[in-house]
């Protein structure tokens, strides 16, 4: 795994006193997602090109003195529970177990990233919780702990410890940061469908392969990324939810020829070289879109430094 880097959601967005921390946790998109097959341990092997984008959940962490006390309160989505069922609770417990820090935390989550959409909102929240606790308790995870978070918290969590874009392999624990040469603009559609990752993967039956090569992209710019778009989970997801195909068709009719699903769905996106083109596509799609569709414009996030 690459050297430890702070997640983009926290970059330049800390608002902290000794006991309270406010964080904006970014969503992500997958520009490339290859399923190499099911591993002997039951996980699926993956090769992914991922980038954080400018859609955020908002988190507040409050330090508590009582050892082991973890409280989580969530709002903004009927699909996200408060309490122990929330991934942020698992992330906090993982942090305290890994570091041996004494104390607790009260976490408030305001969901704005679409849920069950393949945009990494839960994993981003979880990584942000861990990073926030590192700041509050001045104890950091080891590099091995970051790797373990892929298995103990969520597969996409290690990605959010890298600033900006990254090639991600294995289950999600192998993260290789890369530098994009320009900001890309996206029109994103969440078709109002919740898809569980497990249900989508269960419909993918590729045999495990051992090809170590990643796609060769000359530059991480609009042309390079548009030419490599791939998502092996797109077809299984569309079998579960035809609305995904309808959303992709709408983006292509609006001029978004480079379009794909992100993660295990159900959100889809189209790439554009400029904000104006992405906004025009959003307005075009919005004119005839079903009421339950959420249609957003976002951009990729580049490298930013903490403090």
Short characterization:
The protein is α+β, with helices and mostly antiparallel strands. It is built from eight helices and twelve strands. 27% of the residues lie in helices and 28% in strands.
Which keywords apply here?
Alpha-Beta Plaits, globular, alpha+beta, Ribosomal Protein S5, domain 2, 4-stranded antiparallel β-sheet
Count of structural domains = 2
Shape: globular
Q: Largest sheet, if any? A: 8 strands, mixed
- The ordered string of helix (H) and strand (E) elements is EEEEHEHHEEEHHEHHEEHE
How helical, in percent, are the residues? 25-40%
- Tell me what the CATH architecture of the largest domain is: 2-Layer Sandwich
Q: Tell me, what is the CATH class of the largest domain?
A: Alpha Beta
State Rg: 19 Å
Mean pLDDT: 89
Cα(first) to Cα(last) distance is 24 Å
Oligomeric state of this protein: single chain
| Structural class category | alpha+beta
